[in-house]
Amino acid sequence: xxxxxxxxxxxxxxxxxxxxxxxxxxxxxxxxxxxxxxxxxxxxxxxxxxxxxxxxxxxxxxxxxxxxxxxxxxxxxxxxxxxxxxxxxxxxxxxxxxxxxxxxxxxxxxxxxxxxxxxxxxxxxxxxxxxxxxxxxxxxxxxxxxxxxxxxxxxxxxxxxxxxxxxxxxxxx
Length: 173
What we know:
The mean pLDDT is 92. The chain has 173 residues and is α+β, with helices and mostly antiparallel strands. A four-stranded antiparallel sheet has the order 2-3-1-4, sandwiched between helices. It has helices at residues 12-17, 20-29, 44-54, 57-61, 63-73, 88-96, 109-113, 118-123, 138-148, 160-165, and strands at residues 3-10, 33-40, 78-86, 132-134. It has a single domain, classed as Alpha-Beta Plaits.
C-alpha cells in the first residue's frame, strides 16, 4: 500500500454553510492525516492555473463552464487541505462522491450534504455547489499540491492511527 498526499478544497458553499469541520472529521476518522491547511481567497490567475493548466476545464468543457465556476469560487474564501494516507487519492474520491451532487450516493460527502444537478446549474447558468474539490489522480494531486502549497507549509508527524496501520518489517535473527 502506498502513502499518498491529496488536495481537498472546501469551496465557498461549504465554508459559508459552516460544515467544514464536520466533513473534515470524516477524513480523519478513516485515518487520513492533515499535513497542511489554510484559508484563502485566490485570484482569477490562481484558479485559471488550477482549473485549466492542471485540470483542463476550459479545454474540456469550455470557457462558459470556467466562468460560472470562477464566479462561484469567488463567492467567498476557500479552505485548502492536504491529506496524507494509504492510497489517499482514491479514498478521498470515494468518500467525496460523484461531482454531480444529484448522482452522489448516500454516505458520500456530496450525497449527504448537497443535492443540485448539472442540468439545474446549466439552466440557471451557475456553478454547481458541490462543497469541495478533491484531486482526481495521483499526478493531478502532485501538481495541485505544488500549486496551492509551498513545501515549507507541509508538516511531517506520526498519528496514532499510523502506528496501527503501517507495516513494520520484523528483524530476523
